[in-house]
């Protein structure tokens, strides 16, 4: 390790860092000569990709901090001025969640935009990510920045970028922005205007409640049943995030008076004190929700992640037991509900991802709807919906990804946990009016279109060595794809690095299985993980109790997972 060169780079960064806190942090690391820590902080610039930026808060170019955000925003602003002729008229929306440093990072971004002569439409208080996405279209802005790390742990923050079409950026925009960022001067030389200076020039524009009210009206229009329920009991958790007041107000406006928030998690708190990991999918994250639901005898539990773009759903089965639905199950319910109960103004179009269940495709084909599978990430769902609507006149009605992301209609061009919560409640009221419940409705769908069960396994491999291991695992499966996984024959191998199915190249490999199952593997785009996705399809026998068929399906899925993990260990995954 060239410690002399590393120290020189660190000293130069420290001197250009505009934040006294991270300056002092880096000075302390230098004083202790912690070369491993320094090497990680300066291993690379935090990568700007189609998800923008996301990383651990701290000093250095490979961390999230004010210096990185100022330089990133300057590059983004200059790219916009070079590619969007009317950006100085339309401006850019700036929103933020309630995480540590979100306020400062959002204010820095706005200060750079206005110094570049670009109006900044700034949310003065924390807002859900879908509200920022909605504001792009509502205000006809040229772009947006949302400061959030979504459901990551408290030590993270991020910087999400939207284009003027309301969707997250896709290539080549990400490459163009990254190239512009690389040319930006040191952070302490990036021009800024204070909020007062920006307001005096008419460029810093604080957004009023009108935008939020327009968003609430838009998502209320997404309901299909539209009658609410005086008897349905709902529990809602904001998971210490920003969705609380928005979701509760929307549900009550929609005619659901019996909404009980999880009090311990309703207020924003970037420390996330009651959960180890603020993701509804994580073990233990829903414990307080379950306790609240049992106390008030709730029928349905709705949970947002901290920036309220994801939604988890729990519902009671026929025995009265609460069950957490998978992201695929919620996606299938919403997709079927929208396709069968929604008003049609043209050929309906639904979209999901290559790692989500194949069942939405079976439903779409059965109902004569247009259907697409796209790469992982809602940016691909939104942009495919826009593309197909323009080319074929289809009407996008629903999109989802298995990681609890859903959007109904076109109020937002990104996943929307608040809007989805509202439509799930609407669907539950519709089920109630038919004498059933959400899981009863799911059984109806599964008896018609098959019982699909799925699971995901994540293996965390941090640091440079972990990244190398992940690359080796992916390469090994490409070089030597299995002919069988357990007792099931592999019927097709899809390597999306080669642009499978006309999609952009992506580091994903999928093995289609006889009988309709699938195993897919890919590195995470935001965390040091390799992700494995499993799906098995079972056909219930006529008259067979569905729990019995589910038990059989889950056993086969478990055997599939075990067999694949043996193959993964043979190809370099640590035990």
UniProtKB/TrEMBL annotation:
UniProt cofactor(s): Mg(2+)
Annotated region (Disordered), positions in chain: 1-21
Highest taxon of the lineage: Bacteria
GO molecular function, one term: phosphopentomutase activity
Pfam families: PGM_PMM_I, PGM_PMM_II, PGM_PMM_III, PGM_PMM_IV
UniProt keyword Plastid present: no
Keywords, alphabetical: Isomerase, Magnesium, Metal-binding, Phosphoprotein
CDD domains on file: PGM2 (cd05799)
TM stretches of this protein: none
InterPro entries linked: A-D-PHexomutase_a/b/a-I, A-D-PHexomutase_a/b/a-I/II/III, A-D-PHexomutase_a/b/a-II, A-D-PHexomutase_a/b/a-III, A-D-PHexomutase_C, A-D-PHexomutase_C_sf, A-D-PHexomutase_CS, Alpha-D-phosphohexomutase_SF
Name of the protein described by the UniProt record: Phospho-sugar mutase
Species the sequence originates in: Corallococcus terminator
Lineage, opening ranks: Bacteria, Pseudomonadati, Myxococcota, Myxococcia, Myxococcales
């Amino acid at each position: 390790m060239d410690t002399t060169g590393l120290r020189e780079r660190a000293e130069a960064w420290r001197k250009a860092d505009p934040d006294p806190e991270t300056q002092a942090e880096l000075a302390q690391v230098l004083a202790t000569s912690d070369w491993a820590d320094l090497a990680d902080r300066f291993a690379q610039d935090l990568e700007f990709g189609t998800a923008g930026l996301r990383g651990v808060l701290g000093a250095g170019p490979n961390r999230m901090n004010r210096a990185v955000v100022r330089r990133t925003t300057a590059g983004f602003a200059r790219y916009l001025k070079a590619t969007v002729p009317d950006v100085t008229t339309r401006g850019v929306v700036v929103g933020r969640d309630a995480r540590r440093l979100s306020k400062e990072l959002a204010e820095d971004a706005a200060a750079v935009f206005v110094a570049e002569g670009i109006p900044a439409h700034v949310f003065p208080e924390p807002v859900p990510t879908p509200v920022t996405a909605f504001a792009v279209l509502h205000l006809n802005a040229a772009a947006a920045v949302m400061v959030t790390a979504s459901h990551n742990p408290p030590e993270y923050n991020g910087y999400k970028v939207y284009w003027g079409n309301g969707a997250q950026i896709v290539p080549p925009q990400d490459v163009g922005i990254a190239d512009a960022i690389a040319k930006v001067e040191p952070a302490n030389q990036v021009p800024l205007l204070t909020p007062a200076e920006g307001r005096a020039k008419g460029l810093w524009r604080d957004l009023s409640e009108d935008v939020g009210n327009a968003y609430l009206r838009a998502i209320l229009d997404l309901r299909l049943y539209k009658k609410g329920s005086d008897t349905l009991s709902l529990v809602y958790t904001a998971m210490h995030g920003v969705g609380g007041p928005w979701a509760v107000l929307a549900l009550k406006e929609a005619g659901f008076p019996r909404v009980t928030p999880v009090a311990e998690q309703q207020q924003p708190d970037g420390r996330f004190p009651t959960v180890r990991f603020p993701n509804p999918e994580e073990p233990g994250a829903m414990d307080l929700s379950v306790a609240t639901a049992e106390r008030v005898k709730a029928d349905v539990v709705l949970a947002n992640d901290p920036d309220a773009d994801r939604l988890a759903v729990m519902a009671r089965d026929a025995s009265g037991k609460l069950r957490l639905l998978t992201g695929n199950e919620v996606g299938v319910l919403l997709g079927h509900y929208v396709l069968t109960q929604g008003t049609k103004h043209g050929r309906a179009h639904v979209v999901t991802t290559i790692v989500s269940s194949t069942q939405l495709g079976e439903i779409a084909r059965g109902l004569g709807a247009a259907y697409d599978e796209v790469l992982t990430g809602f940016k691909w769902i939104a942009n495919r919906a826009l593309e197909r609507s323009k080319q074929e006149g289809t009407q996008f009605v629903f999109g989802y990804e298995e990681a609890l992301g859903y959007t109904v209609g076109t109020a937002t061009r990104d996943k929307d946990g608040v809007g989805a919560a509202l439509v799930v409640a609407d669907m539950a009221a519709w089920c109630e009016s038919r004498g059933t419940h959400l899981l009863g409705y799911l059984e109806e769908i599964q008896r018609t279109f098959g019982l699909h069960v799925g699971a995901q396994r994540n293996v965390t491999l941090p640091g440079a060595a972990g990244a190398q291991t992940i690359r080796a695992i992916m390469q090994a499966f490409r070089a030597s794809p299995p002919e069988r996984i357990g007792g099931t024959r592999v019927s097709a191998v899809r390597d999306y690095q080669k642009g499978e199915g006309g999609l952009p190249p992506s580091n994903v490999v999928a093995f289609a299985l006889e009988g309709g199952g699938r195993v897919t593997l890919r590195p995470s785009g935001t965390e040091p993980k390799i992700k494995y996705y499993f799906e098995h399809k079972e056909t219930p026998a006529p008259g067979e109790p569905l729990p019995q068929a589910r038990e059989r399906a889950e056993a086969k899925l478990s055997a599939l997972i075990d067999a694949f993990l043996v193959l993964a260990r043979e190809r370099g995954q640590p035990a």
